[in-house]
Every structure is written in C-alpha cells, then in structure tokens.
Amino acid sequence: MQVSLYRYDPDRDVKPHMQHTSVDVPEGSDLMVLDVLEMLKAEDPSLSFRRSCREGVCGSDGINMNGKNGLACITPLSEAAPRGKLELRPLPGLPVIRDLVVDMTQFYQQYEKVKPWLINDAAPPAQERLQSPEDREKLDGLYECILCACCTTSCPSFWWNPDKFVGPAGLLQAYRFLADSRDTATEERLSDLEDPFSVFRCRGIMNCTSVCPRDLNPTRAIGKIKAMLVTHGT
Amino acid sequence: MVTNVTSFGRSGLSDFVLQRVSAVVLGAFGLCVGGWFAVNPEGGHAAFAAWFSSTPMVVFATLAVGALVAHAWIGMWTVGTDYLRPHYFGRASTVVRLAYQGATAALLFLYLIWALAVIWGGLNGSTPPATGEMPALPHASAVGEAPPAEGS
Lengths: 234, 152
Description:
The complex is a heterodimer.
Chain A: E1 2-7, E2 17-22, H1 33-43, E3 62-65, E4 68-71, H2 77-80, E5 85-89, E6 96-98, E7 101-102, H3 105-113, H4 133-137, H5 156-160, H6 168-178, H7 186-192, H8 207-211, H9 218-233
Parallel strand pairs in A: 1-5
Antiparallel strand pairs in A: 1-2, 3-4, 3-5, 6-7
Chain B: H1 12-39, H2 44-52, H3 55-83, H4 86-89, H5 93-123
Helix pairs in contact in B: 1-3, 3-5
C-alpha cells in the first residue's frame, strides 16, 4: 500500500513536507491505520505520533486520514483508504509539534472555558446528589466524549477563530452540564456563551458529527444551547 | 486581533435572533410580492405600481429594506471576522477588516437611503406614479418595430 506521510521535525526541517513510502499489507487482512503507523515506525523510528490504548478509548491517536479526521486505532484501512492510497496528516488547525503530533493547548483552553465540572451552590447531602432516571437519560450522548479533538479540528469555524470559538467538543461538554439537573449555574454558563463567537460561530455544517469516532452529535448539542440562549435571553 | 467591538449588537444572541427575524420578514415580503405576480399574471406595470405604492405595501417594503440591511450587516460582519485575519493579511489585518466593514456599512447605508427614497417617493406622488399610470415611454410607438440597422 502506498502511504504519504506528513513529516516535520522543527530541529531539521525549515518547513513540513510529505514523505512518500509504502508498506506491505498482508493479503486478506484489514489492518487498522495505527498498525500501518507502527510498521512505518519500525522502519523509521524518527516518525512521531501519539498512541496509547489502541482501542478507541483514550483518544490519543486522532489524525487526518485521507482528508477525514478519526482515530487511527479503530479506523480500518478498508474505510480510510478504499482505493489503496493512504495519506496521513496531523489534525488540521492546530500547531504541529512534530510529524503527526499537534499542540492541543488551544483545544484544552476552549474546553476549560466552559467550566466542565458540576457547579452546585447547595450544601452537599450526606451521601450523593440524586438524579431521576429521566434526568440521567438526558446526559446520554454527551458524557461519552473522549476529547480526541477530531471534531473541533474538523470545524472551519475553529480554524478561523480558535481563540474565541469554543468548538464542538467544548460545546458538547457545555451542554452536558447545562442539561444536568444537578447543576445550578445555568444562567452563568449561558451568559458566558452569549457573545458572537463562543457558540454562534457554529454554522451547523456537521463536520463534527460526521467525524466523531464515538458517534456523538455535537451539532445537536450546539442547537440545544442556542435554543436555551434564546429562551433564557429573550 | 478579531474582536466584537465593531458588531453593533455586541451579542451573538441578538445577532442570531435578528438574523432569523429579518429572514422571516424578507421571506414574507418575497412571498407577498411573488404572490401578487402569481394572482395577477396580466397585471402590468401600472397595476403593480398602484398596489406597491399603497400605504400598507410602503410600510411593508420599508420593513423589508430595514430587515435586509440588518441581515446583510450581520452576515457580512461574520464573513469579515472569519476570513480577514492575521493568518492571511498579517499585521494589516485589522486595517483591512476595518476598511471592509466601513465599506460594507457605507454601501448598506447608501442602499437604505436609496431604497427609502424610492419607496416613500412613490407615496408622495413623485416616483413611481402613485396613480398607477404608466409614464410615457420615449419612442413608445416604436415598440415592436425592428431595431435600426447597425451603422445606419
């Protein structure tokens, strides 16, 4: 299989370049893209990429495969490169540290902005804050995010305004706490999102939903935040 | 640095609501004018001018022009703050963006004044004719005649 790899070593390269190489994929097998990366690294140990759990749980190996973001460990070659040519690039829109490793500082800063923790001013009960099964169900499809950044880095609004637009991953978490019956900071959370950039730069193009390796739907969550803002703010 | 200083509303929520309300107004206006042509296929200019210069239509058209200007400003401001960035224009990006926003505001203001002059001028009986009469066209009798040969 022919593979094109984005390579950049700031100590040696003036600018990034594409390295064209090939790997022998065993006949009849359907390897994951991460397996191909491991084979390439065995030949060239200088190749850098992040990986950890290799089963789609840790979210470390988010990369761009033939133009689409995803997790290398759970994306089979048959899906990523049905025509036998594989092009691997780092997640777009974030500064590249080296090869396929990106600096995720801006992504985490936007995540931190939405205060991704439960806020409740009431005195904590003796054991735990209870929630009805119906209220708990409202969090399904929101809490499962693994922060791989595939969604946010596929969003043009984040590319244009990464310092102001929270991005789909952060907004999914923002709605996760807005929808939580135990959270009492709804007004504060909404007023933090009311400006022209944080939420309203989302144009609903659904790149985020298309690439999410956990099949979550950030666009729907963003739509619900907008509806809450309209309801609370008008 | 891109900021929201030049956004008149300074609020994404107000821009969001205004853009949707203005879209509804423009859609209703489009349906209204389109509907007139649908039910009056043989109406002609005189009948249309008489209908369009009636007070309810003048008010509706004024509302539609206001909605258009608000809708266009929010949209163009958003496009400018998305694309006219330091990434493309370096240190000059703020100047480029301000020039773009200034030109957009000036053009929209011009369109607003122009449209209001046309709409309310019709109500005062100047242009278009409030009576619905077709103004005399120059060479009206020549309608249907073959154009003069080139070079004649």
